[in-house]
Amino acid sequence: MQKEQKTTLVWFRNDLRIRDNHSLFKAQARNERVIALYCFDPRQFAQTRFGFRKTEKYRAKFLTESVYNLQESLAGLNISLIVVNDKPEKVIPELVELYKIASIYCQCEWTEEELSVLQKVKYNISPDIRINETFDQFLYHPDDCPLAIEDIPRVFTSFRKSCEKKAEVRPLSPEPKIMVLDNLLPKSWAIPSLPELGLTDFNTDPRSAFPFKGGEDQARKRVEQYFFVTKKLGYYKKTRNGLLGTDYSSKLSSWLACGCISPRQIYWAVKEFEQQQYKNQSTYWLVFELIWRDFFKYISLKHQNRIFHLGGILQKDYPWSVSEEEFSIWTGGRTAEPFVNANMTELRETGWMSNRGRQNVASYLAKDLQIDWRMGAAWFESLLIDYDVHSNYGNWMYVAGVGNDPRDRKFNIKLQAQRYDPQSKFQNRWLQKTLF
Ligand SMILES: Cc1cc2nc3c(=O)[nH]c(=O)nc-3n(C[C@H](O)[C@H](O)[C@H](O)COP(=O)(O)OP(=O)(O)OC[C@H]3O[C@@H](n4cnc5c(N)ncnc54)[C@H](O)[C@@H]3O)c2cc1C
Predict the structure, then answer these.
(1) 238: part of which helix (H) or strand (E)?
(2) Tell me, what CATH number does 367's domain have?
(3) Is residue 298 domain-shared with residue 315, that is, in the same domain?
(4) How does pLDDT run across 289-322, given as a tens digit for each residue?
(5) CATH no. for residue 290?
(6) Is there a single domain that holds both residue 406 and residue 363?
């Protein structure tokens, strides 16, 4: 090992891409040797206090595919991605010692679990080693947001208008560069299989509305298809409340959640479409939804751990039940509402549920059954391929009436089913017994 050369570590977390990745870009700019790390943290795959896993097989598979693609792409830049099935606070100090790492780059995360891991890493390495964190998951970078974090409004529209008026979406970072070939590390580190993560392998359900694979290449392919080949982007606002098929909405959330694509990349692709094709309400609306995504990140930046509290950011004191029996009727799709049951079955069988479905099943749990909404959020966390801490807890608080909805609504499930599934096609797809 050449001890004299300094080494920079890029620690990948929820930013599994090589393009428009500022941690990678800044690490490369140092002109030192660059190595990279991804940890499958066993805590993320353990059982929760609710008796199910924190990450189920659907997201785990998407994650392994994403890390595999990242490893391939980094290899093309002559950067080795070390992949371990272990805790970062154990692995990083070992790497620091072995490769004389002088600085570490990673995406800045601020929720409780991520912060706790970072603190443990810091505790286990010398204070001389700089950990450089970058906010890379936003559409509007926090430094460009016209509002101070403590002034983020409760109502989305005020936030959106303020950003649209006074902030700019940053350009993409320059393309990553190819590094000098270095024999420091073995070329390929094995990505754990689902059984190695304690999960069962599976085949994607042929009925799935999300049959896609993880990885930056797949994310780019989806943008290409949805925007430029089929031009479905141009109809997005009319179809976005759909329930069946791959194209009623962009389906970009899963790649966004693990950072296979940045919201800026999507924004600039929308702008390209608007220049090449046309601009309409649909092209605007996709960006509008990305601002919702940002909003929940700003809400969690402002309110920190209150997003995980029963009373939410409003600190509301509603009576909540924790009936495990009723909860299992909801998770099992055995409630009195076929529309809820169909959506819950879809989630259980595929790891996907539409936005319309999510709103309805969440409202049913929190407002009809009056069950602790955090149990529902934890169930979503376990199963959703696109789980994102801010969007999940933010939306759950919103629907449960402890978050950002000024109207505190309750969904009329029967009316919703009539409106969005008038011929029961969606319900039949998930509730009819398969005929052999
Ligand atoms: C109870 C509940 C829980 C949710 N949990 C998550 C979650 O864990 N992860 C997640 O990404 N989204 C979550 N959502 C938001 C939304 O349902 C999904 O983002 C959306 O269905 C993903 O599909 P899409 O990519 O096709 O979205 P599109 O309709 O194509 O929207 C484009 C992008 O905008 C963003 N977006 C759209 N709607 C929302 C929204 N309501 N809140 C935040 N961002 C939004 C997403 O990043 C999405 O990919 C939740 C919604 C509810 C009601």
Answers:
(1) helix 236-239
(2) 1.10.579.10
(3) no
(4) 999 999 999 999 999 999 999 999 999 999 999 9
(5) 1.25.40.80
(6) yes
Choose one of 284, 395, 409 to mutate for the ligand 1 pocket test, by most ligand atoms within 8 angstroms of C-beta: 395
Q: Which residue has the tokens 């296979």?
A: 260
Q: Are 129 and 161 contained in the same domain?
A: no
Domain of residue 28 covers 7-136
Helix 389-400 vs helix 355-363: angle between axes, to the nearest 10 degrees? Answer: 50
Is residue 8 within 8 A of residue 102, CB to CB? The reply is yes
Mutation pick for ligand 1 pocket among 223, 308, 391, 416 (CB with most ligand atoms within 8 Å): 391
Strand order across the 7-12 sheet: 81-84, 33-39, 7-12, 101-107, 130-134
Question: 353-385 burial, b if ≥16 CB within 10 A, otherwise e?
Answer: bbbbbbbbbbbbbbbbbebbbbbbbbbbbbbbb
- Which atom, in ligand 1's list, is nearest to the CA of 362? 1
pLDDT in tens, 114-164: 999 999 999 999 999 999 999 999 999 999 999 999 999 999 999 999 999
Write down the pTM of the prediction: 0.97
Query: What total of structural domains would you count in the chain?
Result: 3
Whether 261 lines ligand 1, by a CB cut-off of 6 Å, is no
Please provide the size of the chain in residues.
436
